[in-house]
Amino acid sequence: MKTISKFPDGFLWGGATAANQIEGAYLEDGKGLTTVDLLPTGKERFKIMEGYPSTLEPHKDVYYPSHQAIDFYHNYKEDIALFAEMGFKSFRLSISWARIFPNGDDREPNEAGLQFYDNVFDELLKYNIEPVVTIAHFDVPVHLIKEYGSWKNRKLVDFYEKYTRTIFERYKDKVTYWMTFNEINMLLHLPFTGAGIVFEEGEDKNQVLYQAAHHQLVASALAVKACHEIIPNAQIGCMLAAGKVYPYTSNPDDVLKAMEKDRESFFFIDVQSRGKYPGYAKRFFRDNDLTIKMEDGDEEILRNNTVDYIGFSYYASRCISTDPEILKNQTAGNVFGSVKNPYLKTSEWGWTIDPKGIRITANQLYDRYQKPLFVVENGLGAVDQFASDGSIQDDYRIDYLRQHFEQLGEAIEDGVEIIGYTSWGPIDLVSASTGEMKKRYGYIYVDRDNEGKGSLQRKRKKSFDWYKKVIASNGSDLD
Fold first, then answer.
1. How far is CA 251 from CA 196, 257, 357, 364, in A?
2. Cα 135 to Cα 96, 100, 216, 308, distances in angstroms
3. Which residues form the signal peptide (predicted)?
4. Quick check: 299 pLDDT over 90?
5. Which residues are catalytic?
6. Do 240 and 183 touch, CB atoms closer than 8 A?
7. What phi, psi does 352 have (nearest 5°)?
8. Is 66:26 a contact under the CB 8 Å cutoff?
9. Facing residues of 2 across strands?
10. What are the distances in angstroms from CA 243 to CA 184, 336, 372?
11. Given the DSSP bridges, would you call strands 309-314 and 245-247 parallel, antiparallel or unpaired?
12. What is the pLDDT of residues 356-367, one digit of tens each?
């Protein structure tokens, strides 16, 4: 038996999802249209995610996977019962902004939307599962794009603050753990997905993106302020898509490039955690002739309202080179480009598999910020096959998670303070990057295919019982 005893008492084992990838019911009970509701599967999805939508209305002859997803909206009781059977201590989910304020700038919130999340939280608390809530997870109301240009416009700060205060007041007795923006650094890589940004011809992309980033950073700080005022016992964090960037060689040019790539992501968290713009960001603005428009009081807002913890996703490390020949040998990994690391294997989707990278990344973040960490996404997307007896023997997923848990335990032994771990997609859901269902992460299989066909029936995989044992042993039994 492989045993480790590094995970602290009260460690928040669980799973993580996003409203737009599981809920479905995309216009039900008054919900408004969001960015993700305009993302089809296939190559067109990537073009739109990068900020080039051909329209801000869904087409009748196009399949949009978010519209029904796995229909958590009507099946949440069954799904939460399965999470409880695994012994979840926490469940990370997001609130859909457009369920609460369908247009984003509505005068009054949508009561049906508020009640839905009341019902979900009540169901979780019935099983003593701690809700971990992401306030904005890649789903800007489309009306805010059409009317205001989304986060290009300072008015979004006010709309977001009103939204956050509404949900803090409503759920103050039910939710302790909050996060302001999911993978906030994705704004630079997938502007439409991360912030509803649509580029206009002739715009300076860096100017647009970093001004939008400033608006999100101020909004995040105001959410922290509101949360601390309304729910004094709450913990509110930020969240980044993380993964250490390795230099391909010891050439100082490669090392410097890796540092710059790390800082591209750390920029957001530096502001949210330390309360001010770092010097390297100010230099970047000068070198690229960028002028970030700030209002009076912005610097004070950022300085006085820093986050309580750092949430992060970790799927893979990255590798960078300054050699043009080596740069030709890229992985097909997640959104971030990466040179192929000759020491590591890749998943079916070309994502680097690097268990030690989660230990390195956790140490890097803790050394930098000295704040508690929360691993809020990690997992393996794979094509699952039924065995002859009808079971799903996903040993590959178990092996992946086992190795990452071992290294997470090592990080804790290193002295890194980690609140919990919520694996991505405890139940199969729509892939954010590809819109597919065949790229499965879950311990629970959902009968749904890439074309939206299937019964939506839930079925336990082999990993279901394995993760149940891991949680019951607080991570000490990984066999």
1. 38, 10, 21, 21
2. 8, 11, 12, 15
3. none
4. yes
5. 377
6. yes
7. -65, 135
8. yes
9. none
10. 14, 10, 17
11. unpaired
12. 999 999 999 999
- Residue 180 is which amino acid? T
Q: Which amino acid is present at 223?
A: A
pTM beyond 0.90: the answer is yes
Token pair belonging to 291: 């002028």
- 314: tokens are 């970790």
CA atoms within 13 A on the CB side of 276: 6
Query: Do the Cβ atoms of 27 and 439 come closer than 8 Å?
Result: no
C-alpha to C-alpha distances, 342 to 238, 246, 306, 392, 436, nearest whole angstrom: 33, 12, 39, 31, 28
Rg, the chain, Cα only: 21
What is the amino acid identity at position 364? Answer: Q
The two tokens of residue 341 are: 């690391």
Amino acid at 239: M
Distance CA 354, CA 317 (A): 6
Residues in the chain: 479
255 φ, ψ (degrees, to nearest 5):
-65, -45
Strands 458-460 and 444-446: antiparallel
CA distances for 458 relative to 33, 75, 259, 446, 450, angstroms: 27, 10, 44, 5, 16
The structural domains of the chain, ordered by start, are: 12-472 (3.20.20.80)
Spatial distance between the Cα atoms of 221 and 188, rounded to a whole number of angstroms: 19
Tens-place pLDDT, residues 196-235:
999 999 999 999 999 999 999 999 999 999 999 999 999 9
Tokens for 448, please give them.
């749904």
Confidence of residue 3 (pLDDT cuts 50, 70, 90): very low
Q: Per-residue b/e over 235-251, b at no fewer than 16 CB within 10 Å?
A: bbbbbbbbbbbbbbeee
Q: How many CA atoms lie within 13 A of 137 on its CB side?
A: 25
3-state secondary structure the chain: CCECCCCCCCCEEEEECCHHHHCCCCCHHHCCCEHHHHCCCCHHHHHHHCCCCCCCCCCCCCCCHHHCCCCHHHHHHHHHHHHHHHCCCEEEEECCHHHHCCCCCCCCCCHHHHHHHHHHHHHHHHCCCEEEEEEECCCCEHHHHHHHCHHHCCHHHHHHHHHHHHHHHHHCCCCCEEEEECCHHHHHCCHHHHHCCCCCCCCCHHHHHHHHHHHHHHHHHHHHHHHHHHCCCCEEEEEEEECCEEECCCCHHHHHHHHHHHHHHHHHHHHHHHCCCCHHHHHHHHHCCCCCCCCCCHHHHHHHCCCCEEEEEECCCEEECCCHHHHCCECCCCCCCCECCCCCEECCCCCEECHHHHHHHHHHHHHHHCCCEEEEECCCCECCCCCCCCCCCCHHHHHHHHHHHHHHHHHHHCCCCEEEEEEECCECCCCCCCCCCCCECCCEEECCCCCCCCCCCEEECHHHHHHHHHHHCCCCECC
